[in-house]
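ugh ok so i messed up the first submission bc i forgot one of the chains. this is the corrected input, ALL of the components this time, i swear. 890 residues overall. if the numbers dont match what u have on ur side tell me asap before i send this to the collaborators (the ones from the other lab, u know who)
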Amino acid sequence: MFEKVLELIENNQLAAARQLLIEWNVVDIEQLLDEVPQDKMLRLFRMLPKELAAEVFAEMDSEQQQYIVESITDREINDIMDELYMDDTVDFIEEMPANVVKRVLRNTDETTRKTINQLLNYPDDSAGSIMTTEFVDLKKEMTVEKALSHIRKTGMDKETIDTCYVISAQRHLEGEISIRKLILSAPETLLSELMDTNVKFVQTLTDKEETAYIFRKYDLISMPVVDNENRLVGIITVDDVIDVIEQENTEDFHKMAAIAPSEKEYLDTGVFSLAKNRIVWLFVLMLSATFTGSIIRFYEATLSQVVALTSYIPMLMGTGGNAGAQSSTMIIRSLALNEIEFKDLFKVMWKELRVGLLAAFMLAVVNFARIMIFDPVDVFVALTVCASLFCVVTIAKVVGGILPIIAKKIHLDPVIMASPIITTILDAVSLFVYFAFASTFFHIA
Amino acid sequence: MFEKVLELIENNQLAAARQLLIEWNVVDIEQLLDEVPQDKMLRLFRMLPKELAAEVFAEMDSEQQQYIVESITDREINDIMDELYMDDTVDFIEEMPANVVKRVLRNTDETTRKTINQLLNYPDDSAGSIMTTEFVDLKKEMTVEKALSHIRKTGMDKETIDTCYVISAQRHLEGEISIRKLILSAPETLLSELMDTNVKFVQTLTDKEETAYIFRKYDLISMPVVDNENRLVGIITVDDVIDVIEQENTEDFHKMAAIAPSEKEYLDTGVFSLAKNRIVWLFVLMLSATFTGSIIRFYEATLSQVVALTSYIPMLMGTGGNAGAQSSTMIIRSLALNEIEFKDLFKVMWKELRVGLLAAFMLAVVNFARIMIFDPVDVFVALTVCASLFCVVTIAKVVGGILPIIAKKIHLDPVIMASPIITTILDAVSLFVYFAFASTFFHIA
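and heres the new structure output, hopefully the right one now
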């Protein structure tokens, strides 16, 4: 479908291209415009019907948005701003340079300007930052018929009419009612009889992640947001929540690999930003590994007496690190999904202890057999390695299981206890255990 | 709010408890019932209104569901089955033992039984396995008025009426129309003039993950599912898609830590299952680390000549592994979100090469300074270590960046190129590079 329109545009048959485009989904239109030279993109964009143009505009990245705003007339800016939902408006304005913001705000009315400024003030991680202000508000004294006619009058500009909110004269949230219930009920019924008063809602400053959790728990499509005086000020819709969920997951993936999180996509991020997001943790981890190295140096005498011990160090540290990373990852994920709380600490500890003993035993036995069969070393080396392996894996499981829970309890992000950190901690543990056993078995130190 | 009801139940005032309960959200009711002794839970459950009981039943875990079904009458089973949406019915039946399934199916009508059997046949990872069959179907010859009256008649039993689907006499999907458009349009308008013919849909066998991607891309609330003859057979709603997204993310987190994925929550998984899911990869990785060990053994002569070199091995392997894990994690996540494709391979390679050189240079310089200042070793040791570090980090970045893309291209899950695997590969690379430099600088081998 793309080829045909691209060919028309290539041949400057923009009117024909437009004719096909306006039947498309806005996301597809945006994707096509993204592949077209900017001057033609602009001409095509200006040919779109007002409402569609605004929808496409909302989908664009900020570079395209800036180019468009800087190329169109005040009148056209005004049209777009009129049609944009408030959450998209704010997302757009947040990314623009000051002079563009000024020009855009000049082309909006007083009330919109006030709302924009309010929304811009909510912290990035708050429910307020993802809400929109276009929702249907009803009064409980209305009949179904009156409510429906109110919706017919005002619904066109609302982000959703699937759920409507019932508010008092002071704009306090009193209940909600689905469009389905309205349609299926008798016209003369009062909303007060129909509405659901047990509404799940959040405050403007509630954390985005917490908000996403409530959506997921109660299978919501939209949720109202109230200010600190309990007045209804906006709604959040599920499509924005899905973005929050994926964003949080990406952040967690990155943190687990010791990368400072960034909001930009990989291909859009410059080499210096990428390097900057990674170098700090690489430094920290490199320096802690130096500490591990100094443990080895401390036991250099032991090693030079039984040189064979050296070659098992990578296996021991590696297995300990992997065993710990498995546990910490499982627990971190369960914490993120609210499946585990602090009160489960001892349950987790006990479970990890048993899993650890079981896994450690099997690994140690297999490893002992392998060393005795394949490696030209004496039995005391094998015993040192396998006794250490047994202890290290067991410790790794328990430590990996409880550190994230403790981190969360003391208000640290549990994810920092992921693989690189836990591995570094366990590297040191592995070596201490290893040399302790070596000293015992070989009576050296 | 929980305490009060729990107290009433404690004192056997079940009727009073029920009175409070029926005002609650179903998810909260289910959560409360989960905390009550089973006999009281059952009595309370049977006191709930039919429709609410079915909704609560759908939220329960399979253990509770089985207990209830085994304790209630055929008549009551029939009532629940009548009210359950088809996707919840299938989820429930999938987890029941054969005798329970038999009894349940005996208490459903012929058509439902046929539909259940059909749905049970869709593979676990397909769109068909998460769809439901309760949707509103309209005909394009209908007027808005007729459509609304059709919805009023049949809408009560549908999972959503927010989007309705227009089908032909052969049940082929012809278009969709939102309830919002219906309500905001003049009663005499024909659906054929209003409906959107550019509908995003999937087939029953489309992958769940692909389905979730389409939802996210187009901000959908529900999406139609067609069979291989293009007949509309069901719809998928966004709440189920969110569960798919979180499930896929959990799976990826687990795979990245070398854990075999499982669908159960951590606390519900037994010690043996947990151990089983982890032990295989621990074995594999332990054995590959043995290979790393044998590299050290091969160069034992070198090490015994310059024992100081040993203490830098953990730092070198650790930093290489971390640098590679950063790159592979970023790329794996971008692949999962469809931000990167195979055609970007060289772009990624080039970017990682530059990031790698930059990071490697900084790490090597800092490390050189640190060694010269703090460690009692000669300059050739420092040179060996830092030259190796520079090469290893650069290689790690490039390899970490491209391996996941290549894995995807040859239809392997890119996630297997995550931290433990890439780390193990890079461990070997680190040692080879290290000993190569050592041989050069010290003229030994």
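quick check: Chain A touches chain B through 112 residues (CB under 8 Å). that seems consistent at least. Chain A has a mean pLDDT of 89.
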